Amino acid sequence: MLAEFPAASVLKLSLALVALVIVGWVTVLQVRRRLTQPDETSGTGFTLSDLRQLHKSGQMSDAEFERAKARVVEAARKAAERDAAPAGAGGPLRPPRGGPGNAPGDQ
To answer: pLDDT, tens digit, for every residue of 35-93?
Structure first.
């Protein structure tokens, strides 16, 4: 069967196959690298565990701990809502303020 094809054609197809394998391999490496990198966060925040350690060691008062904990919990809640929103939805499904249905007396 191969004897029927010219050598140049077989060589071109072989090179194309090798190039395709190399491109696929590079793509897999890029995806794998991206998946193993830690998520980018906005700044250097604290986790609840970090806050508990600071509070336990006496570096943070009770009031400071409660305020910081509330901020971390609120940030986590907002991040969870943002991640749970369908892609491309652009946020909650409500009309903009002042838009139709929001004028005084429309209710």
So the answer is: 888 765 555 567 888 888 999 999 999 999 999 989 888 988 888 888 887 655 555 55
> How many other C-beta atoms are found inside a 10 Å radius of the C-beta of residue 67?
12
What is d(CA 32, CA 35) in angstroms, rounded to the nearest whole number?
5
Whether 107 maps to a domain, the answer reads no
Average pLDDT over residues 95-106: 54
Measured between alpha carbons, how far is 71 from 60 in angstroms, rounded to an integer? Answer: 15
Q: Are 62 and 55 in contact (CB under 8 A)?
A: yes
pLDDT level of residue 107 (50, 70, 90 thresholds): very low
Q: Is the residue at 18 inside a domain?
A: no
| Residue 53 resides in a domain | yes
Domain that residue 64 falls in: 46-85
Tokens 């998520």: give the residue.
39
Vertex 19 angle, CA 14 and 24, to 5°? 125
Q: What's the total number of domains in the chain?
A: 1
